[in-house]
Design brief:
Radius of gyration: 19 Å
Helix content: 40-55%
Mean pLDDT: 77
Shape: globular
Low-confidence stretches: 1-5, 10-15
Distance between the termini: 63 Å
Number of helices: 5
Order of helices and strands: HHHEEEHH
Largest sheet: 3 strands, antiparallel
Number of domains: 2
Length: about 130
């Protein structure tokens, strides 16, 4: 059966659901936002030159694990959260950020990758301490 009764059932479900519908959402304890808001999907026309090269070198067709990386704020400063270091990476105040959120998110993704590859990342200390060779 189609029509308004199906639409009302969908609305009722979303009003009563906890939003954790997939097994992954239940595992991480939060909903995956872009399932509901397509505006959260990356606009690939806004990739930075660095990200284009990175995706090509990695052999990916998309941003893969970077899709859920967004520009946020920590104590009033633009920042991106690094799950590996469990902390915020602040964007230097000298960086003039664009108004468009998609552009800001691309900068956040680039900043995160560059920091994770740098010698300043805490995971580098673990690598040096525990590498096999």
């Amino acid at each position: 059966m189609t029509g308004t009764s199906d639409k009302n059932a969908d609305v009722d479900y979303f009003l009563t659901s906890d939003g954790l519908d997939t097994s992954r959402e239940k595992e991480i304890g939060q909903h995956i936002g872009y399932r509901y808001d397509v505006n959260l999907l990356p606009d690939y026309g806004r990739l930075t030159p660095f990200l284009k090269t990175y995706i090509e070198l990695m052999g990916w067709d998309d941003l893969n694990w970077l899709e859920d990386v967004h520009m946020g704020y920590e104590e009033g400063h633009a920042a991106v959260f690094d799950r590996n270091a469990n902390g915020w990476i602040r964007v230097p105040d000298s960086v003039d950020l664009p108004d468009n959120q998609q552009d800001r998110d691309m900068i956040a993704r680039e900043l995160l990758i560059k920091f994770q590859m740098s010698d300043r990342h805490p995971m580098r200390d673990l690598y040096r301490a525990y590498r096999k060779f």
